[in-house]
Structures are given as C-alpha cells and as structure tokens.
Amino acid sequence: MSTPTGIGELQVWVDQDLCTGDGLCVQYAPEVFEFDIDGLAYVKDQAGELLQSPGARTGVPAHLRLEVIDSAKECPGDCIHVVRSADDVEVAGPDAD
User: What is the overall mean pLDDT for the chain?
Assistant: First the structure.
C-alpha cells in the first residue's frame, strides 16, 4: 500500500449532524474513529481520547492516511472531512473537489 504523495499533513473531523452511525469509519480506522454512547462517530486524538466538541479535529497518522481517506469516500452520511493541515483544503469528504 502506498501513501498519497504531495498532500502533506492531514487532519480529520466528523460532522455528527450528518453521521448515520453505519460504522465504516470505525472499521477502516479504529485508531482514529470511535462511536460514542449516542451511536455517532467521533475522532480520537493521538492519545486515544474521544474528541466530542463539534468540529473537533485530529491529526491523521501517516500510516493511516489511506484508511482515513477511504473512510471519507465510503461514508454513507458524507460526514467525514479530511483536510490538509497547511491550507485547510479538503482532500476527501463532501467538500473535496
């Protein structure tokens, strides 16, 4: 598996208002995504702490880039946003070009 080149550091966040609770993201990247008791997906920080504030972002570990990008592309709720840290451009998710 190769890592996408030329996109730099990435951050990811979940829009819980759109989350359908299907869990594909948790299956793809359990180190980054987790369900809370409300049945919705949230991101976790590097220490594994659930980030429950709306729009909370976490860095994407380099070895999980493809899994996180695939999560955003396959998400039935179109609620996962993957952005470049440098310029905030969305590389995967509902607002990606």
Answer: 92
Note the pLDDT tens digit of each residue in 62-81. 999 999 999 999 999 999 99
Number of Cβ within a 10 Å radius of residue 2: 6
Q: What are phi and psi of 79, to 5 degrees?
A: -115, 0
Per-residue pLDDT, 97: 79
pTM assigned to the model: 0.90
Q: CA 54 from chain center: how many Å?
A: 13
Report the 3 state secondary structure along the chain: CCCCCCCCCEEEEECCCCCCCCCHHHHHCCCCEEECCCCCEEEECCCCCEECCCCCCEECCHHHHHHHHHHHHHCCCCCEEEEECCCCCEEECCCCC
Tokens of 16: 């819980």
Give the whole-angstrom CA distance, residue 97 versus residue 46.
28
